[in-house]
Amino acid sequence: MSWILAGLAAWLVGWWSNVMLARLPKSRATGLAVPVIIGLTIIVMWECFVRGLEVSSVILPPPTAIAARFAESTSILWEDFVQTVIKGALTGYVLGCGAAFLTAIAVDRFPFLQRGLLPVGNFVAALPIIGMAPILVMWFGFDWQSKAAVVVVMVFFPMLVNTVQGLQASDRMQRDLMRTYASSYWQTLFKLRLPAAMPFIFNGLKIATTLALIGAIVAEFFGSPIRGMGFRISTSVGQLALDLVWAEIVVAAIVGSAFYGGVALLEKAVTFWHPSQRGRA
């Protein structure tokens, strides 16, 4: 009963803290404090209610058990991180986004490709990953290359569509002005159209960050060597080691947030001139 009361007390403290912060002038500190307080409140309530209700660790382990297993398994988590994130997700992300960017320039240069390629891209993008992953694993083997291939397929078309759309963002008057200066296609591309397309390109890059990590992890469920985040999650569930499963989930959440946040910071530095970046703290 004491655990339940402690959980309720944590909820009241978190609620009261956010009410007090809401009365303060908006600033970067208050904007950061609100989600931190909510996150800590959820963790404390999770710990208290799981222990107070005596929930089995097989169903839902408490955060302290997850943290302890995280500390004990850092070598395993690091090995899985390198296999899944660095080799699979990051390699596929770079290859897929790079290929999509170059293809988008070709599509923009030759309009018939847009009519023929984009409908095929929409069809492929609609295919479920659980259908593509086994096929690509059989084609490229059970190591990280097949996971990178899955990531390439997942990120290619969202990046392609956003880049093609971005290259059309500059208006006709701006393009006509470049032609009056006798600018070539490539001069117009690099000095006008690519800068105008940057918000769209970064939108595609941000979408691809989440797709890359999801694709690499899910692909490992269909075959992988004895390492990797997806492999560890699937085998640990079978062994009822849910604390290790949650430790892998924590790593995936941290990596995904850092990956997305890094691209968002780069976007802010590159597109500081865009109206979408004005007024952000």
Query: What is the general shape?
Result: flat
CATH class label of the largest domain = Mainly Alpha
How many strands?
A: 0
Helix content: over 70%
* CATH-defined topology of the largest domain: MetI-like fold
Let me know the largest β-sheet: none
Average of the residue pLDDT scores: 84
- Measured by DSSP, the beta-strand proportion falls in under 5%
Distance between the termini: 43 Å
Give helix and strand order, one letter per element, not per position.
HHHHHHHHHHH
Unreliable spans are: none
SS content category: mainly alpha
Number of domains: 2
Indicate the CATH architecture of the largest domain.
Orthogonal Bundle
Name the features.
281 residues; flat; single chain; MetI-like fold; mainly alpha
Describe this structure in words.
The structure is a single chain. The protein is an all-alpha fold. The protein has two domains: 2-55; 70-278, Orthogonal Bundle (MetI-like fold), CATH 1.10.3720. The protein contains eleven helices and no strands. The mean pLDDT is 84. It is a multi-pass membrane protein. Pfam families: BPD_transp_1. Residues 96-270 form the ABC transmembrane type-1 domain. InterPro entries: MetI-like (IPR000515), MetI-like_sf (IPR035906).
